[in-house]
Structures are given as structure tokens and as C-alpha cells.
């Protein structure tokens, strides 16, 4: 069915590769968003991520990265364009803890990266946002493993929302669950990163080529999204 390119880079490394000549490669919308960001770290993440997408797509398409445009679509999910025409590639970005993740595929794709930075009440958060079975799984986990379990569930939900392009509402958080699946049936994959996680959502049968994973990145597990039965809700 096709391949997915998944690229991970430290922000400082990716930022060093951004063209130094002003920011003429940004679209007017991207420039407006950049100007609204006042925190230097966030500005660096924005520029590095948007340039890295162009570099990866340029390699795939065999074109100059600066000839590509990145246009925000629903819920901020970006869309690639060349000469104002959509490129037949789907893209997703995420950043956390000084790292960037960029996914590119010929089918809708979503990526989410969460690196644990501070202890939180993972069980309380799960009760507030997760499906009942997911909250129970967190309760059953050893205390030392709860951060990792929480981030696995959360990143899988975020990746689903990015692939779907409709965002996450409280109803969708509670009614879309990811359950373990064999490789040929999985439509999501999750890599452990210490107490954090990296999740990718695409389509069954996809092959993922990962470049730049940090040393602590473990092997991926396969998952399949399922919708739970629930009463109709306005924001579902």
C-alpha cells in the first residue's frame, strides 16, 4: 500500500539547518503565525519543524524544499502545496522535550510525540479523559509504569485525531480506543521513549521507515483503533 517516512530530530539540530536568509520560504500564513509566537524556543520549534517538512518532502518528490508551501487545514493539520496545487502527500508534525517528529505518507497520517517532563497525577487525568477500560489499565499498572502507560494511550489518541483531521473532543477521547493488533492489521504504532511515547497513525499494511530515533526508543507495538458504543453526542 505504500511507505511512511518518519523523521526525528533534536530541535537544535533541525534549527541549525534552517536557511539563514530571512524567512522568505514561509507562506504569509506561516509568517503571521511565527510573528505571533514570542517565546524564542517556540519560534525555533516552529521554524525547524516547518523547514524539516519541506526537506523531507523535497527528498521524496525530488524538488527544491523552498518550492513547497505548507498550508494549515482543519485543526491545524498542515497540507503540502507546490505552485498552489496540492501535493499527493500527507504530513503531520509533533514536538516535545526538545525533539521534533515529522511524518510523511501517501495516505492520511498522524504523529504525536510526548516526552515526560514532570510527574503528574496520571490516574486522575485518565479518569477525566480516557475510556473506562483505559483508565482501569492505568490503575492496574505498577506505579513506576503509569507515566509510560498514560503517554502511550495519549499519543495514540492524538495521532488518531491528526490522521482524522477532526481534532479531539471529550467524547472522542472516551469513545476511540486503541487495542493491541498484529502487524498486518494494525493502523497505529507506538514506540516507548523512557516514560514518554511516540505514536503514528496511518492505514493497515503501511511500512514505516524511521530515521533519527533517539537511543532510548524501543521497538514499536501494533495497535488498531476501535469506536466504543456510546450515546450520540453533539461533539462526537
From TrEMBL:
Output one GO MF annotation. Answer: holo-[acyl-carrier-protein] synthase activity
Keyword Zinc in annotation:
no
Query: A GO CC term?
Result: cytosol
Gene Ontology BP terms: lysine biosynthetic process via aminoadipic acid
The protein's superkingdom reads Bacteria
The identity of this protein, by name, is 4'-phosphopantetheinyl transferase
> In which family does this protein belong, per the annotation?
Belongs to the P-Pant transferase superfamily. Gsp/Sfp/HetI/AcpT family.
Residue ranges annotated for the 4'-phosphopantetheinyl transferase domain, each copy included: 108-170
Keyword NADP among UniProt keywords: no
Q: What is the lineage of its organism?
A: Bacteria, Pseudomonadati, Pseudomonadota, Gammaproteobacteria, Lysobacterales
* Record's signal peptide: none
InterPro entries given in the database record: 4-PPantetheinyl_Trfase_dom, 4-PPantetheinyl_Trfase_dom_sf, P-Pant_transferase_sf
Name the UniProt key words of this record, in alphabetical order. Answer: Transferase
Amino acid at each position: 500500500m505504500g511507505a511512511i517516512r518518519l523523521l526525528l530530530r533534536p530541535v537544535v539540530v533541525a534549527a541549525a539547518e534552517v536557511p539563514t536568509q530571512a524567512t522568505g520560504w514561509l507562506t504569509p500564513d506561516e509568517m503571521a503565525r511565527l510573528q505571533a509566537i514570542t517565546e524564542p524556543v517556540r519560534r525555533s520549534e516552529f521554524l525547524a519543524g516547518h523547514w524539516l517538512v519541506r526537506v523531507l518532502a523535497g527528498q521524496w518528490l525530488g524538488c527544491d524544499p523552498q518550492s513547497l508551501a505548507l498550508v494549515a487545514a482543519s485543526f491545524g493539520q498542515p497540507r503540502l502545496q507546490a505552485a498552489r496545487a496540492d501535493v499527493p502527500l500527507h504530513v503531520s508534525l509533533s514536538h516535545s522535550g526538545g525533539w521534533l517528529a515529522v511524518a510523511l505518507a501517501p495516505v492520511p497520517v498522524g504523529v504525536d510525540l510526548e516526552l515526560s517532563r514532570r510527574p503528574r497525577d496520571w490516574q486522575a487525568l485518565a479518569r477525566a479523559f480516557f475510556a473506562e477500560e483505559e483508565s482501569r489499565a492505568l490503575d492496574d499498572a505498577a506505579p513506576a509504569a503509569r507515566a509510560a502507560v498514560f503517554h502511550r494511550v495519549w499519543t495514540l489518541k492524538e495521532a488518531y485525531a491528526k490522521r482524522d483531521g477532526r481534532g479531539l473532543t471529550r467524547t472522542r477521547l472516551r469513545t476511540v480506543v486503541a487495542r493491541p493488533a498484529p502487524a498486518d492489521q494494525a493502523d497505529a504504532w507506538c514506540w516507548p521513549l523512557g516514560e514518554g511515547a511516540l505514536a503514528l497513525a496511518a492505514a493497515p499494511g503501511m511500512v514505516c521507515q524511521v530515521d533519527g530515533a533517539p537511543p532510548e526508543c524501543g521497538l514499536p507495538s501494533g495497535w488498531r483503533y476501535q469506536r466504543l458504543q456510546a450515546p450520540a453526542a453533539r461533539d462526537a
